[in-house]
Design brief:
By secondary structure, the protein is α+β, with helices and mostly antiparallel strands. It is built from seven helices and six strands; from the N terminus they run αβββαββαααβαα. The chain has a single domain, classed as Transposase IS200-like (Alpha-Beta Plaits), CATH 3.30.70. Strand 2 and strand 3 form a beta hairpin. The N and C termini lie far apart (43 Å).
Amino acid sequence: MKYNPDIHHRKTIRLKGYDYSQPGAYYITICTYERECLFGEIVAGVMHLNLIGETVQYGWHRLSQYFNFIELDAFVIMPNHLHGIILIADDNTTNKNQLFKQPIIQPVSSDQISTLPKGTESGSLGALVQNFKSIVTRRVNRLTRNSGTIWQQGYYEEIIRDERAYDNIRKYIVENPLKWHDDENYSTQKCDRNTNSHKKPQK
């Protein structure tokens, strides 16, 4: 089945008891606070980053320097969200296909679940995203002399189970700007303008 954005990134499919620090290929989506279009605009199918968008891009590319056990794959910044593929490897991983061939979904008993890491484990996918969001927020706040978060709480993720899914998701990411007006995150009210500063969340 081809990748369908209507069913693949509207809600998390985080698996109970799954260890998100183990080697694998992961597709993630991170949205801005209240879906505000903070990162630039799309003109004729091309994303034009503003200063905040460039800061986000810089922060993403720096992730693999902070965490040498990951590889960053396809990535795109949209006006109010981003998509990316993160590959988590270990010392025994020599190529990308090994990440797809390993048994990503393993039967987990109730006893095993209780011993799995809880919260944001160091080196897990959640820790990577948390680090990225935190660093970018600090940089953006310094640039804009603002405070608060630019991100929606949490993120959406999908475990990429095989090469076919990987190819479909990668194509979807690359072509995302071409289909912006059909994107579920598109809003005429919030996105048909340039937004050069970010909104502080109301308490």
